[in-house]
């Protein structure tokens, strides 16, 4: 059974940093891309990062240069390093692989 368990969210001041983690159980991690999404209150879910099995990455303009996705194919863990955080980055963040989703972790950027 595939499970995605996220951690690392919390409260951070504007300009601060956080690192999210997503541990994937099962054998699907290595051959598949990992994606990160977020959903703010009253808004649609938004894609924020993807990292392919061989480590290639892509980001939308809204986070490019501030967020860095990575993965460890030994520990089946994906990471999202977020820097220079803004109020608009406040959302629940989700990791996803194929049709599977993590439970979400809240990130709040506030002074």
Give a brief rundown of this model.
The chain is mostly beta strands and 111 residues long. The protein has no helices and eleven strands.
Describe the protein in words.
This protein is mainly β and 111 residues long. The chain is built from no helices and eleven strands. The strands form two sheets. Strands 2, 4, 5, 6, 9, 10 and 11 form a seven-stranded mixed beta sheet that branches. The radius of gyration is 13 Å and the shape is globular.
The average pLDDT score comes to 96
Helix-strand sequence: EEEEEEEEEEE
Number of distinct beta strands: 11
Helix content: under 10%
**Roughly what fraction of the amino acids lie in strands?**
over 45%
* Class per helix and strand makeup: mainly beta
The helix count comes to 0
Shape by Cα distribution: globular
Which stretches are low in confidence, meaning pLDDT under 50 for 5 or more residues running?
Answer: none
Radius of gyration: 13 Å
Task: Write a concise keyword list for the protein shown above.
single chain; 111 residues; mainly beta; 7-stranded mixed sheet; 11 strands; globular
């Amino acid at each position: 059974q595939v499970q995605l368990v996220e951690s690392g969210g919390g409260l951070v001041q504007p300009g601060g940093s956080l690192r999210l983690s997503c541990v994937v159980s099962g054998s699907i991690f290595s051959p598949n891309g990992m994606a990160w999404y977020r959903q703010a209150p009253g808004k649609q879910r938004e894609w924020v990062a993807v990292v392919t099995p061989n480590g290639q990455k892509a980001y939308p303009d809204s986070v490019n240069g501030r967020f860095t996705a990575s993965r460890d194919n030994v520990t089946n863990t994906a990471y999202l390093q977020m820097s220079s955080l803004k109020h608009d980055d406040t959302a629940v963040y989700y990791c996803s692989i194929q049709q599977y989703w993590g439970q979400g972790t809240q990130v709040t950027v506030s002074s």
